[in-house]
Amino acid sequence: MRDPLSVLTDAFTSFVFGKVETTRLPVRTSTGQAQAVYLPTAAPGLGDSGVIIGREVYSGKGYIYDPFQLYGQQLPAPHWLVLGESGNGKSALEKTYVLRQLRFRDRQVVVLDAQGEDGVGEWNLIAQELGITPIRLDPMVANDSGIRLNPLDPSITTTGQLALLRTIIEVAMGHGLDERAGFALKVAHAYVTEHKTDRQPILTDIVEQLRHPKAESAEAMNVDIDDVRAWGLDVALVLDRLVDGDLRGMFDGPTTVGIDLDAPLIVFDLSHIDRNSIAMPILMAIVGVWLEHTWIRPDRKKRIFLVEEAWHIINSPFVAQLFQRLLKFGRRLGLSFVAVVHHLSDVVDGAAAKEAAAILKMASTRTIYAQKADEARNTGRVLGLPRWAVEIIPTLTPGIAVWDVNGNVQVVKHLITEKERPLVYTDRAMTESSVTDPELEWETEQRAILIEQQQLNGTSQSTVA
């Protein structure tokens, strides 16, 4: 029992100052109801070394990503898949990511630019800003002043040349080479490689040998010379398309002198090629293998290979096999492959489902912009996304995407600085990326992002150099 004086004192204090303490009975509740008393928490970020992408939506924290910094610690592979329908900001993300990566001293980027407007590729403005001339592959001007890439360039190994020739033919024919056609191609290539030593061998030499094989080619397998000629006829007709057909002038001569493979940014402008024709996967294969043997070198540089309209690669079994090897090989030499695809269904349900699955498995980073509900469910099933992420994908607004970095799943708003804006929002890009225009209150934040990025890059270069 309380002391009467204490009771009197408490009563007087309550009368003068009001009730200062309330005694409540205990309350019994569930953990689901009680969770509201805990402060909200956000998933951990990816570290503070790399390039700034934007901010994590739920926590407001800055989101920093760099596959080279994360590789071996949080990433088993540095390759990246970007998905989403047009009009949601994929183009803006690609461009700002490349511009920010190039602030590091030891970065180099190749872009296969398959989209364009007004006669130039979508990356033309960025190339101009950096003082770089895009490598424009255009069959309409190739015979006059266009760029040539030689599939038989001596810088490519003989094994690589033969593999590339087979891929070109198989993509064009839509099926693999049988043993007889493969033999005819092999002996023609071997003869040209051995006897054309005074200059670069070219495709015309291969076509000539397929049409007129030498007797020793038949004798090596104890077959008739007419049989070898017949086996190689279809092969010769396919290659003739690159020599004297609609793709002539781009691959039927020595590699153009002066292509700067040491430039920080190399842009292959494929915008003059019909994206829906068989020419596009053929071009992808030739450029990919040519880069494998001429660009990727053990010089401690970190390289990024960004491919727009990448379903031309993943949807062709023969091209996908070449790029699958490139990804495995390049991972040892610091290559990050970035594939930009509109719909995952374009590739997982195609003819190269097995090869596509292998490439997707190597992409440890996946960025998914808004998709329709059915497509989002399919994407979530294939990529193994958590249920909550699948449910919000159809609700995402332009500029916001779900990022899955080897199981670390966060929702990220991409931010663009004032300096980047005129390079990113070109006339053509307005149809895809203008809707990602930040709100007015972002302007001060963008300035802070730029300053923070510069500080981070300044401190990180000593780490990655």
TrEMBL record:
Keywords: ATP-binding, Nucleotide-binding. InterPro entries: P-loop_NTPase, T4SS_component. The keyword Ribosomal protein does not apply. Pfam families: AAA_10. GO terms for molecular function: ATP binding. The keyword ATP-binding applies. It comes from the Bacteria. Signal peptide: none annotated. This is ATP-binding protein. It comes from Streptomyces exfoliatus (Streptomyces hydrogenans).
